[in-house]
Design a protein that fits this description.
Number of helices: 1
Oligomer: single chain
Strand order of the largest sheet: 1-2
Number of strands: 2
Helix content: over 70%
Length: 61
């Protein structure tokens, strides 16, 4: 059994190994989804920057 502290209410509660593993998986999955979203946004910004440079170069001809 592991003791966990709730970040909202600051209370302790106990979870078994399986419950702890489930909580860890949820946290990892959530963090992974956040990072994936950030990468998708960065990729779109990169594509937009490339399109912008192409348009500026075409307008200068």
């Amino acid at each position: 059994m592991k003791d966990i502290i709730c970040q909202n209410c600051k209370k302790f509660f106990k979870v078994d190994e399986a419950g702890f593993a489930d909580i860890l998986k949820q946290v990892r999955d959530h963090k992974f989804e956040e990072e994936l979203q950030e990468l998708n946004i960065a990729e779109k910004e990169k594509e937009n920057a490339i399109r912008f440079v192409d348009l500026v170069l075409q307008a200068g001809k």
